[in-house]
Write a structure and sequence with these properties.
Number of strands: 10
Helix content: under 10%
Largest sheet: 8 strands, antiparallel, barrel
Radius of gyration: 19 Å
Distance between the termini: 19 Å
Structural class: mainly beta
Length: 182
């Protein structure tokens, strides 16, 4: 593998990822509390711009979007059954990074995120959730323009009430992605 200059980290990049997502929700209904969840596999795309802060540090800002519908679990209580799903997940993020060597970048991530939550069963409804996410990852250039990355992220959303049921979803996500640095 040839050496890359630090400038290869700065600038615009775009990528796609496979997401392994654990979605859970602490739900309240008629005095009962349910904690339900499920693991799903999805996909996302993202774009970001990296600003060189020094020869060994970078700050990227970007946006990611996942059109995948994620199953978030189902539950029954006192004759009431519900099934939860999340879709249209997006995140606006900042990514401070540290250069490890000429082709590897370690980064942290802080994100403002949103998703649509859908409820089916005895209670049907939809609500938009917003929350804060944090995570970390590693990005490896495989030549001057292409990279691979691995990332982990946790997102805690605000609570919302849909037809007398209060939902407080969280997402834990691991991603494996590829991308192109322009």
């Amino acid at each position: 593998m040839s050496n890359f200059a630090f400038a290869d980290y700065a600038g615009f990049r775009a990528g796609a990822s496979v997401n392994f997502t654990g979605t859970s929700s602490n739900d309240s209904y008629s005095g009962a509390t349910l904690n339900i969840g499920q693991t799903s596999v999805g996909a996302s795309i993202d774009g970001a711009y990296g600003f060189a802060l020094s020869s060994k540090s970078l700050l990227s800002v970007g946006l990611s979007y996942s059109p995948t519908t994620l199953d978030a679990g189902s539950a029954s209580y006192s004759g009431t059954s519900i099934t939860l799903q999340q879709k249209n997940l997006w995140a606006l993020y900042a990514e401070p990074g540290a250069v490890i060597n000429d082709s590897t970048l370690l980064y942290g991530k802080l994100a403002y995120s949103g998703a649509q939550g859908n409820v089916t069963g005895n209670y049907v409804g939809s609500q938009t959730f917003h929350g804060i996410g944090y995570g970390a990852g590693i990005r490896q250039l495989i030549d001057k323009s292409f990279y691979v990355q691995v990332e982990a992220m946790d997102i805690s959303y605000n609570s919302q009430t849909v037809n007398s049921v209060t939902y407080k979803p969280t997402v834990t996500q691991g991603t494996i992605g590829i991308g192109y640095k322009f």
